[in-house]
Amino acid sequence: MNEEIKPPESLKERIYTVIFEADTPGGKFFDVCLIIAIALSVTVVMLDSVYSIHTEYSQPLLILEWVFTVLFTIEYALRIYSIGNPFKYIVSFFGLVDLLAILPTYLSLFLPGSQYMAVVRVLRILRVFRVLKFAKYVREIEVLMRALRSSRRKIFVFLFAVVLVVVILGAMMYLIEGESGLGNPKFSSIPRGVYWAIVTLTTVGYGDIAPETDLGQAVAALVMIVGYSVLAVPTGIVTVELGRAARGITNNACPECSREGHDPDADFCKFCGTKLD
């Protein structure tokens, strides 16, 4: 029997194999070199932000930054050229990260200082999971992303409620401490009061704005206590969704009792027994 002879790979196919496939020797070597280049380029950006180093070595660091940017630009162009559906890659997570990794340096030609945002290219080191075949870590990332997607509505409602609360607190403190009250110059407007409410509710406590009246301090003490419980709410929401995502539990609601938390293959509600859609 004559074995079927495979046609030789085209240049486009060879580029795709090296850039996108981590199982081949060439692909592994390329990814390792890419990760090293990313780490070095981020180091260059960080060193350039140090005043003493920038003063003495600004020119060599600038040259290195442009060398890395040109290399990453060529790599980005080759990814678009070699893949079957370029648009799908461009709008993907890694496609957007690859684009953001090269844009800051070009923007620095028009907006001085924007080159420091090139540190975003450190996200490209996430490809180390693919190179070293950390499949378990990749699955954990997927579980985390599913949990965040499932909890986004609850967190949005929670954040919206927090915004309403801080606006009310800001207006209240303006009345207590501002022009209508003691005349505390630090509470000169409602937006300043809202800023104080956010800083206090999140327990950050910069101390740049502080109430001086007894009533204002009493309100501040109440806001500080409430702040501890407020911080626990989004943590609890994400934790519950993480447990569901890890067990594969869906958010489908029962049409009879509206309870959630069913297994993907469940035919009946485990709370009331109603047949599920």
Which class best fits the helix and strand makeup? Answer: mainly alpha
CATH architecture of the largest domain: Up-down Bundle
Report the CATH topology name of the largest domain. Answer: Four Helix Bundle (Hemerythrin (Met), subunit A)
* Residue share in β-strands: under 5%
The gyration radius over C-alpha positions equals 27 Å
Report on the structure:
- The chain is mainly alpha-helical and 277 residues long.
- It has two domains: 11-133, Four Helix Bundle (Hemerythrin (Met), subunit A), CATH 1.20.120.350; 137-247, Helix Hairpins, CATH 1.10.287.
- It is built from nine helices and no strands.
List the helices and strands and how they pair.
Elements: H1 11-20, H2 25-48, H3 51-82, H4 86-90, H5 93-107, H6 128-131, H7 135-177, H8 190-201, H9 214-247
Helix pairs in contact: 1-2, 1-3, 2-3, 3-5, 7-8, 7-9
